[in-house]
Write a structure and sequence with these properties.
The protein is an all-alpha fold and about 80 residues long. It is about 85% helix and about 0% strand.
């Protein structure tokens, strides 16, 4: 795989993480709800496993910015993908 393609895809995920953080305005509760409902909606159209693999790096980018344990957001991600 070309290094420029990898850099572009990781940039897209970082941009998505920044967008989600901007919408939640730094509130952990709003971020949790946003991840759950975003996951419910998207996993209704996208298969669960590829969706989770694509969004896990986004959660990994978000948690250090908020200073929280990532397992809470992982739980929201899993719950939303399972319901969807």
């Amino acid at each position: 795989m070309d290094k420029s393609a990898t850099r572009q895809s990781s940039g897209l995920l970082a941009d998505l993480a920044a967008f989600i953080l901007r919408i939640s305005q730094g509130s952990l509760f709003a971020l949790y709800l946003l991840i759950v409902w975003f996951s419910v909606f998207l996993s209704a159209f996208i298969d669960n496993v590829p969706y989770l693999i694509a969004i896990l790096p986004v959660v990994q980018v978000l948690t250090p910015k908020l200073g929280v344990d990532p397992y809470l957001l992982y739980l929201g991600l899993l719950l939303g993908a399972s319901v969807g």
